[in-house]
Amino acid sequence: MLGVTYYHQTIRKYVAVFGTLFNDLNIERTNSSGTVTEKIKIPLAYGPKQKWLLAMSDTTASRKVTATRSPRMGFALTSVDYDSVRKLNTVGKNWAANSSLSTTTSLLTQFNPVPYNFAFDLFILVKNAEDGTQILEQILPYFTPEFTVTVNTIPDMGIKADIPIVLNSSSVADEYEGDLATRRTITWTLSFTLKGYIYPDIKSSSIIKTIEVNFRIPATAVPTTDLSNYILMESGSASAPVYIQTDGLLIAGGGIMFDGDLVAGGTVLNEDDGGIYLDGLETAGGRIVTDGLAYRGYLYTEDGNQITAENGNLYIGDDYEDVIATSVTILLEDQDGAILTEDFAVGSSDNAGIILLESTVIEIRGGSVQLEDMDGRIITENIQIQTDGTTRIINEREDDGIADATIKTRYTVEPSPSTATADDDYGFSETFEFFQDGRENDPATGDDYT
Amino acid sequence: MATNHYFNNFGADTADQKLIENIIIESIQTYGIDVYYMPRTQVNTDSIFGEDRISKFEDARQIEMYIKSVDGFEGDGTFVSNFGLEVRDQITFTVSRRRFQELQFEGDNRDKEPTEGDLVYFPLTESLFQIMHVQGYNTFYQTGALQTFDLVCELFEYADEAIDTGIDDLDKIEREESYTIEFTLGSGSGTYNVEENVYQGTSGYANSSIKGEVSNWDSGTSTLKLINVIGTFSTSDNIYESPYSIQLEDDSTLLLDDEDISTPNSSTEGKPIWESTASFAISTFDDQEQSTDPSANNVAIETVADSIIDFTEGNPFSEGNI
Lengths: 450, 322
Known about the structure:
The structure holds two protein chains of two kinds. Chain A is mostly beta strands. Chain A has helices spanning 10-20, 51-56, 129-139; strands spanning 26-30, 36-41, 44-46, 68-69, 72-82, 93-97, 106-111, 114-126, 146-154, 159-174, 186-198, 203-206, 211-216, 230-233, 242-246, 296-300, 306-310, 313-316, 356-357, 385-387, 407-416, 427-434, 440-441, 448-449. The two termini of chain A are 48 Å apart. Chain B has a six-stranded antiparallel β-barrel.
């Protein structure tokens, strides 16, 4: 269950940190006039060791020269106890970029460490009592009663822990009593508590560098009654919107109608105002009606030619000659009678004109569509397309199945620059792309295909 | 009731007593071993703590002793403590009272009997034993007199005491056991000699606060080992040899321990010519590295700790202004 192999060497680090507090202590010996006659660095070693390792440091002959050398110090880790007072949130985590890689491709996480008290004993062996007191006086003032050291406990995670080392007690064992043949030994023992932590394993996961959000239109069959009727092109005044109405609800098909008196349903009420009316209802194929519901309507070209639309046919000329409009240019005039030579603009400046769609589409090949507000100004700001009653834009056949649903647009966020490494400052680039017809996305692989 | 005066067993300096003593001395000289007896010289005795931290051994005289503990070393032997390897061998020597007195050590009662705290150099194992207990009555008034001392000794716990006896076998113990700083030297000239004093600074050895004693000089590797160090050596200054040698006009050499350039200074003695002394720049050294103490881990511990301890936030509260 716990078989995750890792080792931070945390306890070994604590041992070294504790030891290095005392590895540069000196004593000085003076003569009767107070002049220093000798300065001695106190040897220090971690006490528990392999006996053979100790033994091999000296030959059997050389170790017989003297018993030992003093003063010297040793220290040992004596116990490790859980410290419930310093408990951290069990589910808390530390996060860090994986700085070991040249380019950061992963994120490191680690649960909160567990607090433990490490008991250390420092032993000071001296032959002269004043050697001991001199050493002691160089140690005790630093502990009040704690001395705090900042330790790079987990470098991979950038964790630097402030580790208090508390001096608990000092005692001396001076075996000066006994017969003359027994050696007098003076050993100071200082007991410390190192308030450290034990750290769990580090987990690595990929960092989020790119976000792709695919927008799709749900293919679920939508009841006819839920189809939206309007695409609103909102102007500066929300109360007087300019809008395009798609009307597939009341009559099959659709049309384009310039009429300021439209009511829901796409019916032209003020027929005398004239307009372009493609009506697939009355006759198959639809036609252009210039006089409302009149049987015959006329359009006039700029040079005075007459275009007559009748029974779904388009005639050019004075008579109803069957001139097939193979290449017809439809020129639109503005309210003043001037021919529009600019980009084809759809809209209404007085909230009177509409484009009526009935069972057909507006297809714009080349050029551009400009929207004007109610005052006739071309809208250059962002345009909000608002649906009526629902929050969706339905541009998919309502009978499409789920499997036919495709991604229509994609929003992509990427870091910039892409070579950023841990701790670098970097931003993001955003891309909004539209899917062309026939382009699909495989959600399993994340790849696009056509 | 007095003792029988026909048997004068407790007289002073009787023929019987001399005979026994001579036989004992001859026996020790036959079956014993030559050791060096090293009396301790007190330098600065602390009357409060009752100790002398800088006592030293400046004299050593050879004398034969009988090894009373014939089965080998006694005591606790070799064991591991919190401080590493310790050897607590004990040995008991027997020395003739008369032969010891013939050594004629100076000082209160020094010429009469051995003293606890003195050392015995045991040449077979090249060991220094400290006399823990002088037992003068183990052979209790044989023929009315005491002929021997039994010296209960234990291996010496060395605490950087000076050993300057003039006998190299003994003096080298100080050089090999004392706290030693090893210097790797750079450019310079001259030769350092063992037991010479060296120093740093411009005011001469006597006035310098940075001193040491040469325990080893390897000119091939430019490695200098110093013991009895005072002060803190710096790589910014050379290590100068002391005393200076003075080459006189008559080609004789005069050594001045105190560097007193005023003597000789008369016209009759000739003007001194200062010889160039050994002087080398320090390349590297680490005063925590104790080359004579294989158990010391000061450097290893610090090396590991330096890579762990974070020194970047030494004083996070003052922004370096305090």
